[in-house]
Amino acid sequence: MIRKKEESGLEKLQSYGTVQLLRYMLLPYWGLLLSLLVLLLSGMALDLANPFVLGLFIDTAKSGGSLQFLWVLAGAFFGVVILRQAVLVCETGIASSLQMSTTNTLRTSVLRHCLRLDFSFYQTHLPGELIERIDGDISTMGNFLSRFIISIVGNCLLVLGMLISLILIDWRLGCFLVVFSVSALFLLKHLQQRMGPVWEMQRQASADLYGFLEERFSGTEDIRASNAVAYMLRGHIEQTRKMWRVASQAGFLSTSLFQAMHWIFTLGTIIALALGIWLFQSGAITIGTIYIIVRYSTMLQGPLMGFTFQAQDFQQANASLRRVRQMLGTAGSIVDGPRQALPEGTLSLAFEQVNFSYGLDMPVLKDLSFQVKPGTILGIVGRTGSGKTTITRLLERFYDPDSGAVLIGGVNLRDVSVQAVRSRIAMITQEVTLFHATLRENLTVFDTTISDERIHQAIALLGLEQWLETLPQGLDTAIEPGNMGLSAGESQLLTFARVFLKDPDIIVLDEASSRLDPTTERRIEQALDHLLVGRTVVIIAHRLSTLERADSILVLEDGVCQEYGLREELIVTPNSRFAQLLKTGLDEPVEAL
Ligand SMILES: Nc1ncnc2c1ncn2[C@@H]1O[C@H](COP(=O)(O)OP(=O)(O)OP(=O)(O)O)[C@@H](O)[C@H]1O
């Protein structure tokens, strides 16, 4: 129910324009918004009041008014300045809180959406780029939101207040400044339109750089080992050069815009001053009022220039919004089926005439069919690139077949929710991913319902009790990022412990023991004796010894089933491919058998 609600929320977000999105993000926080509005109005009133107080002070002083009144006016001026600062502090505090609340909601929605997308999405989007989207772009939108409220709304109110006051002082002067402000804004808008594409290019260049760095840092070991540091640095220099070009273009354009605005406003103030002097000479206004006119016309510069930067922020936020919407609009190709669960108990597996390609018109699995009975073990052998890992990806429903069906427990995976499938399968691959979190969290994968007692049982089963005792804080010990501080064997043993704790009905072991030394492998073998009992298992192995447990064997070549049968039978059939493999070893190409 909650998930349905979230999904419909996401769907809505994808179609929202800027204004709708602002409304969606801000409306739940209407209390904060209201307080902000009150503060903005108070700030505007205080900004408008100060020149009046000073104007009155000048007129009173010039006409020889009472000293006591002058002291009162000086005190009022001081009080207004202090109060204005206090209002400013509150405005900033409330706007920041509004920014954090709204952007955190959006950040979570985008992250949730990304986590649901399938493998093909992650092939075309590097992690660094996703970080830039989820953090960079949404922060830009958040900054815009908070500054938008304070500056755009505050500045609009201030400009309106000043123009109305100036019209009330003298309608001719007021009209001139209204015409001037509107023309300045049009000019600004025109100049601003040239900035949009440049900002978008700047953010894209930054996302590319993040993506590049992320990819290279994750392969640091390989880069050093293959002496590719110079190549990596060259790539980095090219990326930063691209960023530099776009950033200088953006910097040049915005500085020119700023300068142009500055000269326009200086001209406006000169004309307002000339008008003020003319009105004073004709006796229409006092010298104090000239001060108010000059003060207001210079004060106009702040908010109107503020609009320029807000328009810049708006364009940046719009560019960010476009990219975030684009990401939210990326639909996963894996669609949940209507069934919410697979049958209870031990599960069978079957591939029925499965054809599959990764979208490059190069079939990876061709008309593949096989069946695994509940509680039995299937061993898959084949040369590199023959499609073994692809079979496991289809089993976990990371992809759907192009034709044919993958069945678990007799149910076509297209008819079941992805969550229901993955909750019943555990996969141990060559890649061990440990999180920068405590040992407990790494073992339970953040499932707080798993008791410490069960964790200790799993650790004992893998013979890791002594290792656990050496850790300073036991299960609360933090695992360093990137599996640092753990040997390859220890990391893999921990992923085995994870599987024990998940207690799945199907286990997929993909080259699981390839990184282990003989002692660690023995430990794993002992643990597997317990773990595999009563479960359906798929073992992908390059070493034949790993297949000794298998009940049936599938020999795969270029995505085609070359042989499939019971292991015991294949062993005693002299011309079977498997029997010959046992003689020659896996190093020999299967084709040559
Ligand atoms: N994500 C992918 N996108 C495109 N092609 C892919 C992808 N993953 C694998 N392939 C291609 O699909 C074919 C089968 O790959 P797969 O990883 O399933 O083989 P494998 O038998 O598991 O190989 P290995 O023993 O090396 O792990 C290969 O030609 C490979 O290049």
Automatic annotation (TrEMBL):
<dbReference type="InterPro" id="IPR039421">
    <property type="entry name" value="Type_1_exporter"/>
</dbReference>
<dbReference type="Pfam" id="PF00664">
    <property type="entry name" value="ABC_membrane"/>
</dbReference>
<dbReference type="InterPro" id="IPR027417">
    <property type="entry name" value="P-loop_NTPase"/>
</dbReference>
<feature type="transmembrane region" description="Helical">
    <location>
        <begin position="144"/>
        <end position="165"/>
    </location>
</feature>
<dbReference type="GO" id="GO:0015421">
    <property type="term" value="F:ABC-type oligopeptide transporter activity"/>
</dbReference>
<keyword id="KW-1003">Cell membrane</keyword>
<keyword id="KW-0547">Nucleotide-binding</keyword>
<dbReference type="GO" id="GO:0005886">
    <property type="term" value="C:plasma membrane"/>
</dbReference>
<keyword id="KW-0378">Hydrolase</keyword>
<feature type="transmembrane region" description="Helical">
    <location>
        <begin position="21"/>
        <end position="46"/>
    </location>
</feature>
<feature type="transmembrane region" description="Helical">
    <location>
        <begin position="270"/>
        <end position="294"/>
    </location>
</feature>
<dbReference type="InterPro" id="IPR003593">
    <property type="entry name" value="AAA+_ATPase"/>
</dbReference>
<keyword id="KW-0067">ATP-binding</keyword>
<dbReference type="GO" id="GO:0004386">
    <property type="term" value="F:helicase activity"/>
</dbReference>
<feature type="domain" description="ABC transporter">
    <location>
        <begin position="349"/>
        <end position="583"/>
    </location>
</feature>
<feature type="transmembrane region" description="Helical">
    <location>
        <begin position="171"/>
        <end position="188"/>
    </location>
</feature>
<keyword id="KW-1133">Transmembrane helix</keyword>
<dbReference type="InterPro" id="IPR003439">
    <property type="entry name" value="ABC_transporter-like_ATP-bd"/>
</dbReference>
<protein>
    <submittedName>
        <fullName>Helicase</fullName>
    </submittedName>
</protein>
<dbReference type="GO" id="GO:0005524">
    <property type="term" value="F:ATP binding"/>
</dbReference>
<dbReference type="InterPro" id="IPR036640">
    <property type="entry name" value="ABC1_TM_sf"/>
</dbReference>
<keyword id="KW-0472">Membrane</keyword>
<dbReference type="InterPro" id="IPR017871">
    <property type="entry name" value="ABC_transporter-like_CS"/>
</dbReference>
<keyword id="KW-0812">Transmembrane</keyword>
<dbReference type="Pfam" id="PF00005">
    <property type="entry name" value="ABC_tran"/>
</dbReference>
<dbReference type="GO" id="GO:0016887">
    <property type="term" value="F:ATP hydrolysis activity"/>
</dbReference>
<keyword id="KW-0813">Transport</keyword>
<feature type="transmembrane region" description="Helical">
    <location>
        <begin position="66"/>
        <end position="90"/>
    </location>
</feature>
<dbReference type="InterPro" id="IPR011527">
    <property type="entry name" value="ABC1_TM_dom"/>
</dbReference>
<feature type="domain" description="ABC transmembrane type-1">
    <location>
        <begin position="36"/>
        <end position="316"/>
    </location>
</feature>
<keyword id="KW-0347">Helicase</keyword>
